[in-house]
Structures are given as C-alpha cells and as structure tokens.
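Hi support team,

I submitted a single chain yesterday and got back a structure, but I'm not sure I'm reading the token output correctly. Could someone confirm the output below corresponds to the sequence I sent? I've pasted both exactly as they appear in my results page.

Thanks,
R.
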Amino acid sequence: MNKKVFEWYQYLAPAILTPLSFWLWWEVYAGDIRLVLMAWLIPILYAYIVPAVGTNILKVWEFDTSLRLGRFRPHHGFVFGSATAMLAWICHFDRAETVFDVIKYGFVVASVLGFWNVIYDIKAIRSGILKVYNQPWADHRSAEAIALDYAPWFFAGFGVVYGLGIASAEVLSSKQTFSDWFFAGFFVLLLTFSIAVPVIGYRWHSFRTHGHSGCSPISRQGN
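Hi R., thanks for writing in. Yes, this is the structure output for that exact sequence:
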C-alpha cells in the first residue's frame, strides 16, 4: 500500500465514516445522546489527545502529510475516531445487561482494534506517511517490529477500556436512576482511563523491554 492511498484515505474515510458512525450509534441507542457520545466521541478525543502529545510534545511520532500542525495532522482524531466508532458498532449486537456482557464486549473491541490497527500502522510506516522514532526504529528493525512495540498497547489497550466503558454505560442506563450529570462524570472518567491505561501499559512494556520509558525519540546509529 503506497503513500498516495493513505493520502486519499485520511480525507475520504472520515468524511464518510464520521457522520455514518454517529447515525448508526444514534439508531442503536434510539437517540440517547449520553450513550451515543460514549461510543462515538471518546475515540475521536483519544485520537486527538494521545497522538498530539506523542507528535508535538514528546516527538516520538510524526505524520508526513501535506496538511500538518507541527508533526501532527489536524484531522487525525476523525481519521482514527470515526473508523474506531465504526468497528465498535460492527462488534455490537445487543445492549449489555450483565457483568459478563461488559467483559465480553471489552475483550471483543480490544481484539478487533488491536488487530486492525496494528496492520494499519505497519502499512502506514512502510508507506512513509507515519514515522515512529522508537527503539526498534533506532535498531533498524522492520515496520512490523516498530509497530508491535507500541500499537498493541495504544490500540488494544484503548479498546478494552473503551469497550468496557460502552457496555458499562449501557448497564447503568438501564437502571434509569442516574442523572445526566452522572453520565457526564462517567464520560470524563472513561476518557481519562482510556488514555491512562494504554500509556501506563506502554511505559511498563518499554521499561521492561528496552530499559527506558519510550516517551522520547531514540537516536538512530548508522545507516
């Protein structure tokens, strides 16, 4: 997959999937905006906050695109977020009613997001549209090694929290005893954990594997 394919995808996909995924979740939840925003907005915000920090503050990642703010493409939240909301919708069948339903959905979403986003990032790294300056990159390793060093944590790690959060919100909404303010707080808590859990997991992995946090660009030796 060459760079031109990714150049087109980054504009066409979110233009289609952003409104489509919102409408599909709206239909699932019969217009309950509290649940719709859990499923639709969380991945968009995640994909703005985490990559923006990783590119322009930590400088570990970089997008090589024509439209950029520093090292970050300003539409990235919708590129990742719309596709993620769509995949989560595909994985969704019935509303969660039990703890088992919550755990099952978290596992399924984590598995799907982890699988497809690892593949996507491998292709993106190979094409040159995405650059990741981590330890495998510094060691002149393959695109697969570069992506597998971080992608499972940031995608599957996000997916498990995101999936658990969506399903938990469904269970809570069925009780009809919680106010809109409660769900607003739940939304903030879910967003916070969806960011914190992948970052903590990645840092643990990086310290254990490479002896450093992985939160700074690594110098490359030789050619």
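A quick pointer for reading it: Residues 206 and 213 are 5 Å apart (CA to CA). Let us know if anything else looks off.

Best,
Support desk
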